[in-house]
Design brief:
Blueprint: H1 4-8, E1 19-24, E2 34-39, E3 44-49, E4 55-61, E5 64-65, H2 82-85, E6 91-94, E7 117-127, E8 130-142, E9 148-158, E10 161-172, E11 178-180, E12 183-188, E13 197-201, E14 203-208, H3 211-214, E15 233-239, E16 246-253, E17 259-265, E18 271-279, E19 282-290, H4 296-303, E20 307-309, E21 314-324
Length: 325
C-alpha cells in the first residue's frame, strides 16, 4: 500500500478512499438513532450504533454482506424485551453484569446493549505509517442504590487491514465490589452463512448446552439448509490459545470464499459460545467470545467465572474480527 505522501499526490482528501462519518436515522423505529459509518478503503464497511451500546450492525467485505440482521431492523426502543428490540448485526454487547436468560432485575443478555454512548469521538488519520479509523464512546450501566459501571469502547480499523478491533475498558465507579459477565454476541448471516459454511477452532473440549445440541454434536461445525420449526443449538468451546494468547474461531464458506476469523484474549474471554439457528427467516450463526457459560448472573458468580471488579478498578477486554472475501 502507498504511504501518505504517495497517496496525497493523487488525492485532495483521504475521504476519497476511507472515512468514518456520523449519521442520524430519519425514519422507522430507529428514527433519531446516531450511527457511525466506517469505510476503511480496502473493502471493509461497517456501521456502529452509538445509541445501542456501541454495537456494530451492518458489515460487509468487498460489497458482500457478512452480518445477520434481525426482523426488528434499527430500533430506538429501549424496553427490557431483548428479542423484540434486538437489531442483530455483526456484534451486540451483552453484559455488563449478566448474560443468559432473564432473571431477577436482568433482561435476556443484560442491559448494556440498550444504553446510549456519550463522549463519542470519531477520528481518522495516519499513525505510524498506517491510515487508522477509530471510534470511541462511553456507555453507563448504573442505578441509584445499585451498580455504577462505565464501559469505554474503542473500535478500530486500518486501511489495508480488513479487521475490526474492539477494545473495552470497564471501570467500577461504585463503592462496592461488583462482577462482570461479558459476552460479545457476533452474528453472521447470508451469504457468508449457508449450507457451505464450516466452523473450526482448536478445541480442548466442546460442551453442548442442552439435549437438542447434544444429539447433533457430531455435526456441530455445519449449518443445514433453512427449515421450519427447528430448535436452536448452542455449543460451548474451550479453545486452546495461540502463541499470542488469542482463542481463534473460523467461519469459512467453501463455495463463495467468504471467511471470518473471530479472536479474543484467552485470559479475558476464555470461552466461546457457538449459536446456530436454522429457522427460515431466522438463519444465523452466532460466534460469541465470553467469560461465562450463560448460567446467569447468580450462577456465574457462584461458579467463579464472573470477573470480580473492585471499586475504582478498570478491567480490559479485547477481541477482533478479521474478514476475507
Amino acid at each position: 500500500m502507498k504511504n501518505e505522501a504517495q497517496l496525497m499526490a493523487y488525492l485532495a482528501d483521504m475521504d476519497q478512499l476511507a472515512y468514518a462519518r456520523t449519521l442520524v436515522l430519519d425514519e422507522g423505529n430507529g428514527r433519531g438513532l446516531r450511527l457511525v459509518e466506517v469505510n476503511n478503503g480496502s473493502g471493509l464497511h461497517f456501521v456502529i450504533s452509538a445509541d445501542r451500546g456501541m454495537s456494530i450492525t451492518e458489515c460487509s467485505i468487498d460489497g458482500k454482506n457478512v452480518a445477520w440482521r434481525s426482523p426488528a431492523g434499527y430500533s430506538g426502543t429501549k424496553s427490557l424485551d431483548f428479542l423484540t428490540d434486538w437489531q442483530g448485526g455483526l456484534m451486540t454487547p451483552c453484559g455488563l453484569r449478566h448474560a443468559g436468560g432473564p432473571e431477577a432485575g436482568q433482561p435476556l443478555h443484560g442491559k448494556i446493549n440498550m444504553n446510549s454512548a456519550e463522549m463519542l469521538s470519531v477520528n481518522a488519520g495516519w499513525i505510524d505509517g498506517r491510515y487508522r479509523l477509530q471510534i470511541s464512546g462511553t456507555v453507563r450501566e448504573a442505578a441509584m442504590f445499585g451498580e455504577n459501571l462505565r464501559l469505554r469502547r474503542t473500535i478500530t480499523t486500518f486501511m489495508g487491514d480488513n479487521t475490526v478491533y474492539i477494545d473495552d475498558e470497564v471501570k467500577n465507579l461504585g463503592a462496592s465490589d461488583d462482577y462482570l459477565v461479558m459476552l460479545y454476541h457476533c452474528n453472521f448471516g447470508y451469504p457468508l452463512v449457508d449450507e457451505n459454511v464450516i466452523y473450526s477452532s482448536n478445541d480442548e473440549k466442546i460442551v453442548p448446552r442442552n439435549e437438542d445440541a447434544e444429539k447433533n454434536l457430531a455435526v456441530y461445525e455445519k449449518m443445514p439448509a433453512p427449515a421450519a420449526d427447528t430448535p436452536e443449538e448452542v455449543f460451548f468451546h474451550f479453545i486452546k490459545p495461540d502463541a499470542d494468547g488469542f482463542c481463534n474461531a473460523v467461519l469459512k464458506n467453501s463455495k463463495n470464499g467468504l471467511q471470518a476469523v473471530i479472536s479474543a484474549k484467552s485470559d479475558e474471554l476464555p470461552y466461546l459460545a457457538q449459536w446456530k439457528s436454522f429457522q427460515k427467516g431466522r438463519y444465523v450463526c452466532g460466534i460469541e467470545p465470553t467469560n461465562c457459560l450463560l448460567a446467569g448472573r447468580k450462577g456465574e458468580i457462584e461458579a467463579g467465572r464472573a470477573r470480580k471488579i473492585s471499586p475504582l478498578e478498570t478491567v480490559k477486554f479485547s477481541m477482533k474480527i478479521a474478514l476475507e472475501s
